[in-house]
Amino acid sequence: MNIDFKTLAEKYQTPYYVYDFDHITKQYEELKSSFRARKSLIAYAVKANSNLSVIKHLADLGAGADCVSIGEVKRALKVGIPSYKIIFSGVGKSDDEITQALELDILMINVESAAELNRVEDIAKNLGKIARISIRVNPNIDPKTHPYISTGLHENKFGVDIDTAKRMYIQCKNSEFLEPTGIHCHIGSQLTQLQPIKDAVKIVAELVKNLKAIKIDLSFMDVGGGLGIIYDNEKLIDTYEYSQSILDAMFGLDVTVVCEPGRFIVGNSGVFVTKVLYEKVNGNKRFVIVDGAMNDLIRPALYNAYHKIEVLNDNKNLSDCNLVGPVCESGDFFAKNIQLPQTNHNDLVAIYSAGAYGFTMASNYNTRGRVAEIAVLNGQDRLIRRRETFEDLIALEEEFIK
Ligand SMILES: Cc1ncc(COP(=O)(O)O)c(C=O)c1O
Ligand SMILES: N[C@@H](CCCC[NH3+])C(=O)O
């Protein structure tokens, strides 16, 4: 990544997120081409980074969208992703969201419970429409990732077990208002081992075959997202081996393969850049305090997640410290017990691998405006979301006049 963080800081102030759009292109193309032996749809998981310019960039490359709210569906449509490339997942879709999804005629609604299927059927009937259905199967497989981002075990809230899925497909087949269209499975995020994915895909492919035997022919097999990225020194799943193992499991099935990567596409493209405000020592504990905080990038506080951190100065004398923000929480840290050089006021600090689940999980806690987002493409930088002002933060509030 060849981005001049200092020039961007002078131009846009700090903190900011910067995304290397050339890296996003590379990641998308790598995955897309690994499936070239078969019809495929890469449905980008919008939740990872839902900035309109990011989604538009992927739309221009041909990506579809995996969405978990009607808001995400509308973002995808707004930047030109055609409705026939949009999938809507999630365990708790409201009636209003289901209605809008049907009216917008998206590719499939990814249904995650028997109760939800009944709601979709009723709503489709009222609208006089046929709902294209995909069912999210929970294969009860341990994805070997952080427990908070594991989704494919029965103890997780996602999807339905195989037997329930089968009954739901039969309900679809027998309904005038439901069309069994796809099958879906997503076992977790930041996956670095292929075997759990292989095991899950095998279970799903088996179900597709069993359904075929009872004359339920699906058109799409969606293997979810989850491919891990480099935060530290992870050994990643090879994309070619990934796609081959999926294609092997699908052998003999006439279905389009769908996958829904989020982090893989955008994670390593993004850097969160913040600047040093102060240093202090409490007893013998050193703290480096920066202007970014947990409300801007919550992954370290929420998952104890590791992000590589670099202080952009020439000091070589490292010592142990905690890198923390101004938010009024002891959990407001980017790293604990890390070796950083002595810093000066306004030194920049780069926090890497922040392109996924960074800005999208940001909040306004402590009445802090969300930071600027910048794209770099072909060496050119562009502001793609301006920094929020105080006026933005209070714009929706009304004074309670007594
Ligand atoms: C249904 C579904 N698809 C795709 C994703 C994207 O995951 P990732 O960013 O790990 O690729 C998620 C999030 O875990 C998800 O729940
Ligand atoms: N927010 C998580 C990923 C969740 C994936 C969506 N199910 C992270 O930052 O790693």
TrEMBL record:
Cofactor or coenzyme needed: pyridoxal 5'-phosphate
Enzyme class per UniProt: lyase
Active site: 328 (proton donor)
InterPro entries registered for this protein in UniProt: Ala_racemase/Decarboxylase_C, DAP_deCOOHase_LysA, De-COase2_C, De-COase2_CS, De-COase2_N, De-COase2_pyr-phos_BS, Orn/DAP/Arg_de-COase, PLP-binding_barrel
Chain sites annotated for binding substrate: 263, 299, 303, 329, 357
SUPFAM superfamilies referenced in this protein's UniProt entry, alphabetically: Alanine racemase C-terminal domain-like, PLP-binding barrel
Pathway participation: Amino-acid biosynthesis; L-lysine biosynthesis via DAP pathway; L-lysine from DL-2,6-diaminopimelate: step 1/1
Ranges where the Orn/DAP/Arg decarboxylase 2 N-terminal domain occurs: 22-267
Reaction catalysis annotation: meso-2,6-diaminopimelate + H(+) = L-lysine + CO2
Pfam families, A to Z: Orn_Arg_deC_N, Orn_DAP_Arg_deC
Residues that hold pyridoxal 5'-phosphate according to the record: 226, 260-263, 357
GO molecular function: diaminopimelate decarboxylase activity; pyridoxal phosphate binding
EC code(s) of this entry: 4.1.1.20
Family stated for the protein in its record: Belongs to the Orn/Lys/Arg decarboxylase class-II family. LysA subfamily.
Assembly notes: Homodimer.
Protein name as annotated: Diaminopimelate decarboxylase
Gene it is expressed from: lysA
